[in-house]
């Protein structure tokens, strides 16, 4: 094992903000809501009718007909985000040892739409059965398996599930893998939580917003916060061994500097927003392992789930570790919650903020809820940005923090 | 894991507790008794009416959650595979003698594997909310209060963390049928790197439900022979017809070596190697040359500076499909050379079936017990040699043998090939 440094050299976004890192950044700066009435199915009979969908996504641009029938929409988004990340990185995989490349993605709920169709095929008729693709399309590892085959990524692959927090854990896993000799690892993830049955499953947490107004449905940290709006999509990024990236002259978006994962050690319940101590400990440990101090943090991208008790806990943890002045911004209210995909998308946004030295605003946050007082970025701000801390928290107690920084040569 | 911490090499990690839920007996000791007696636990599916399916046999666990110490709230909340995980964690922690307290909870994590997570509960609830599959727009008002926990398999590790109040890194690794080995491998890395001192690591799955049985029917991966359930799982035998589904789980307590030594813990073995490689070939198909599995074995031996000729036992994937059995036989020869012919190999799936993501952890539990108790479990139901499977598969009868190095492998959908090496503890330097 080495102490190799790991940098991010490719960004692939497939999200309600658009396809590709540039489209995403443009949407983020624009700030208008990308949420809308669910179009994948008729949501009239459900208490939740809003969601974020990927606009203008044509799977045929990314997925061959043969693969399309054998995979869920969530995997199509994975293929597309991967292709975007690889193109952005300009890496030539064909010139590399396949064992030195890998894919480590997070997936919280698998191929929901596909799986519901198969359950229906099995149960609707007495002699019903699932198709030959059910065994490879629904399970959590489907996207990683397919991506590893398509791009010949034959090294240490991983599939992580830690509800929303796993999207950040995948970057940590990418670095662990690189320190054990792999040169390039795809990290991040996408989610496809929009099918009638998947939505029904999500309703049981009572954390989804029932609002029908896209502009105000999901307002993390605001006095009007009343749950989150779910979205499909996410981001896949290429994490690369620094020396490998330098040798091939790659453009470096940033460096993965540190991370930590903690757990509340207790279940999520209405009224209990989690454990401030453990949320704070993840942030503190991540900074410590990054060899950075609280004062070095230029911006925080919080988990921002939009459930009042959870927001208060996260805000308290941020104040405890970083103080009241650190800029905090989130685009989740604008783009929706993509679970593990959303955590990965926040890493992409953080890298873009560093690239352009711009802190994007938190759209619509004018009136923070009591207990959620933080230095929110309410208007887009030009500011030198070199270090970002990203938080992700998973239902039932998962907390992960990740520190990404501008790449700087060692002194 | 801060920069520069690699100078002294990774920390050493040992196994200090084992807990098992398996068909044929739901505790560690009952499991070991099943294995060493060569007893098969495969039977006709009793959980539901399987008449319409091609494969109607499985290895079911006679699991009683109350007897396994679960609280009423845990039973109400947790799907069957999570209940397995809780039972295994309890047994493994008790076995380890570890006392979790305020000083240790922050550095204790939970990393579990599962291939199909809460499909059992998801399917049951689906039938209710969809009016037996008639409605695409399912009726959410019929849904139970813990349906989200069934949707996200992170519940498996979360529920264990909740019970013990642990605050360390918590994760579910879900790489299909290699999930068990990969979860323990992930945990090994966390302890090596100092991200945790102790990890409750393992896997569980409860896939014996119509949707999963139908899934493997559709691709003819499971056996169609239903008349003689006790002899249905026949890995490496020339007459095998496919795998037999199983269920269960296992938890190993992974602990940093000095932490274990300081408290005088019983040490089963040391984790000395783990690697996973992907075949980049096919989601379910395997090339007969076994190259990627051989590479995973090579790397995992190399990590512990273990000579291939030092391998005393191979706990095979041995699913009992022709494709798998030939693939891994080739991989063992490629990785170990002639020593492969001198090394006892066995598949415990011949007795307890293939519990998908769980089995890798159950097999690592078997390896820990093999080293501890100097006995090798057999491959049951072996009678006819397949010319392409010409190694020593330890047919039908357990063997006494001192095992210092046990190698286990897993192979799964997605093309994942994983290998792990457990070694008898050498003196700490």
UniProtKB/TrEMBL annotation, chain A:
It comes from the Bacteria. Keywords: Acyltransferase, Transferase. One of its GO terms (biological process) is fatty acid biosynthetic process. InterPro entries: Beta-ketoacyl_synthase (IPR000794), Ketoacyl_synth_C (IPR014031), Ketoacyl_synth_N (IPR014030), PKS_Beta-ketoAc_synthase_dom (IPR020841), Thiolase-like (IPR016039). One of its GO terms (molecular function) is 3-oxoacyl-[acyl-carrier-protein] synthase activity. SUPFAM superfamilies: Thiolase-like. Pfam families: ketoacyl-synt (PF00109), Ketoacyl-synt_C (PF02801). Coiled coil: none annotated. Residues 3-406 form the Ketosynthase family 3 (KS3) domain. This is Ketosynthase chain-length factor. It comes from Actinophytocola xanthii.
TrEMBL record, chain B:
SUPFAM superfamilies: Thiolase-like. Keywords: Acyltransferase, Transferase. GO terms for biological process: fatty acid elongation. InterPro entries: Beta-ketoacyl_synthase (IPR000794), Ketoacyl_synth_AS (IPR018201), Ketoacyl_synth_C (IPR014031), Ketoacyl_synth_N (IPR014030), PKS_Beta-ketoAc_synthase_dom (IPR020841), Thiolase-like (IPR016039). The keyword Transferase applies. Transmembrane segments: none annotated. It comes from the Bacteria. GO terms for cellular component: cytosol. The keyword Transferase applies. Belongs to the thiolase-like superfamily. Beta-ketoacyl-ACP synthases family. This is Beta-ACP synthase. It comes from Actinophytocola xanthii.
